[in-house]
Write a structure and sequence with these properties.
- The protein is of the alpha/beta class.
- The protein has one domain: 3-Layer(aba) Sandwich (Rossmann fold), CATH 3.40.50.300.
- It is 43% helix and 19% strand.
- Helix 1 crosses helix 7.
- The protein is globular, with a radius of gyration of 19 Å.
- The protein starts with 5 loop residues before the first strand and ends in an 11-residue tail after the last helix.
């Protein structure tokens, strides 16, 4: 069986990544989302096993020691990680998998799986991104300043990614993401392997 594709999407906070990932999963068949593990507390409206796997720092460190993560990182004061067994089992079944992780996590995954497709989601402009972050009103000025600094650092990594999608229009950005997934599935080696086709390398005598 042909192994599935591994897609990674990264973006600075406020770029609309969560919404676009959800729309992609709703509109493309055969791709699933890998739910990350985190040590942070659930926010209002979040549910364990749906938005994240919420675990204690002790449990998270046990998983790190057991090599249970495909990638993991400390972000601000919390830890985040992607389950290695979960992702590998889905890929082996031929299922495409989507990861929503930051730049440092994407680098870790690409080192392990050079064929990973990296997609970076860009805001329409820096001013729009700043306005979105300020509009949340959920953080004090010092934390907001830190998020803005991290966003600048992440934006500098866009050149490491295979594709970049600008989220200036939700419908268009969704179509762009869908096109990337479809194009990857239609690459010649994958199409031939999926259909089990064989073509002669030399012309047959007429």
């Amino acid at each position: 069986m042909e192994q599935g594709n591994l897609f990674v999407i990264s973006a600075p906070s406020g770029a609309g990544k969560t919404t676009l990932c959800r729309r992609l999963l709703e509109q493309i068949f055969g791709i699933s989302f890998s739910i990350s593990y985190t040590t942070r507390n659930p926010r209002e409206g979040e549910f364990n096993g749906i938005d994240y796997h919420f675990v204690t720092q002790e449990r998270f460190k046990e998983m790190v020691s057991a090599d249970s993560f495909l990638e993991w990182a400390r972000v601000y004061d919390n830890f985040y990680g992607t389950s290695k067994p979960e992702v590998l089992s889905r890929l082996e079944l031929g299922e495409d998998v989507l990861l929503d992780i930051d730049v440092q996590g994407a680098r870790q995954v690409r080192r392990l799986f050079p064929g990973t497709i990296l997609i970076f989601l860009l805001p329409p402009s820096w001013s729009v991104l700043e306005a979105r972050l300020r509009g949340r009103g959920s953080e004090d000025s010092s934390r907001l300043k830190l998020r803005m600094a991290n966003a600048k650092s992440e934006l500098e990594a866009v050149h490491e990614y295979d594709f970049a999608v600008i989220n200036d229009d939700l419908l268009r950005a969704t179509e762009d993401l869908k096109s990337i997934v479809i194009a990857q599935r239609c690459r010649t080696p994958r199409t031939l392997a999926r259909q089990g086709l064989w073509f002669p390398t030399q012309k047959v005598n007429q």
